[in-house]
Amino acid sequence: MSSDEVFVTLLAGAIAALKWWGWCAPLLSRARLGEWSAADAFSWTAPLACHVLIFAVLRMLAADDVRSAPEYIAMYLALGSAWVGGLQGMTIWLGVGGRDDAIERSNLAAAIAASGALLGLTLCYAGGNIGNGPGWWVVVVSAALATTGWFVAWWIVEAATRVSELVTIERDAATGLRLGAFLLACGWILGRAVAGDWVSLDRTVADFGRMSWPVIALVVTEIFVGKTIGRSAGGGLASQLARGIVPAAAYVGGACYVVATRGSW
């Protein structure tokens, strides 16, 4: 490893340790007191799933020289951990904070939404690792492109519908599920849009624009759902299906279809 790669690894590792300790400390404190909730289960499971996902992508789909080198897998895993751990703190600006709402307030709806956000961020980063490239900066550029699109999509939905109010104030689990699925689906599509062998920055941006447009359809759909049935009253099964389960399944299923039809990496 070069000196800059060692520096990136150490810096990313330090950031990851700091950020994830801030996430886990209140969970550990509550566990010692015997206080356990469904929100805590999501808050423990989602970060673990994110790290497993990044590791799997690095081992199977990353550059040829990364897959066979434990030191590079460690570097990109540390970078991914810092990426997701650092950026998850910014989601509070969009109305849903993983630590503040999901963990501190044991809000199940927020925990589900925050889990989807963590997975969405992970998929944005993971996509930047897929394919061959000249160095770690390529991963950062690609992941930044996908992550920026992801935040913009969430911001548009939040500005149009104020979906966060139902998640954080009314603690509506159906809305939390729908929002989490939306964020996961956007991350999946955007991560795929930056995946592949690096040719040039211009080519990467062009491919991103060509392949990420289905996110626009997701945004329009979520705004429509949020403004119509999304704020309807009632907690029965029909309401849960219409406002949460069905849209969530449609978002994830749509993302699966988009990624599956994009061809090889």
Q: Could you explain how this protein is built, in words?
A:
- The chain has about 260 residues and is mostly helical.
- It has helices spanning about 5-30, 40-60, 65, 70-85, 100-105, 110-130, 135-160, 165-170, 175-195, 200-210, 215-225, 235-260.
- It has one domain (about 5-260).
- Helix content is about 80%, strand content about 0%.
- The two termini are about 25 Å apart.
- The model has no long low-confidence stretch (mean pLDDT about 90).
- It has twelve helices and no strands.
- It is globular and about 55 Å long.
- The longest helix has 30 residues, at about 5-30.
Q: Which helices and strands appear, and what pairs or packs with what?
A:
Blueprint: H1 3-32, H2 38-60, H3 64-67, H4 70-87, H5 98-104, H6 108-129, H7 136-161, H8 163-168, H9 173-193, H10 201-211, H11 214-227, H12 237-260
Helix pairs in contact: 1-4, 1-5, 2-4, 2-6, 4-6, 5-6, 6-7, 6-9, 7-9, 7-11, 9-10, 9-11, 9-12, 11-12
Could you give a quick summary of the protein structure above?
78% of the residues lie in helices and 0% in strands. The protein has helices at residues 3-32, 38-60, 64-67, 70-87, 98-104, 108-129, 136-161, 163-168, 173-193, 201-211, 214-227, 237-260. The two termini are 26 Å apart.
Task: Provide tags for this entry.
single chain; about 260 residues; mainly alpha; about 80% helix
Number of strands: 0
SS-based structural class? mainly alpha
Could you tell me the strand content as a percent range? under 5%
Q: Summarize the amount of helix as a percent range.
A: over 70%
What is the ordering of alpha helices and beta strands? HHHHHHHHHHHH
- Quaternary state of this entry equals single chain
Please state the CA-atom Rg, rounded to the nearest Å: 18 Å
Q: Helix tally?
A: 12
> How would a crystallographer describe the biggest sheet?
none
N-to-C span: 26 Å
Instruction: State the low-pLDDT regions, or none.
Output: none
Provide the number of structural domains: 1
Shape: globular
What's the average pLDDT? 91
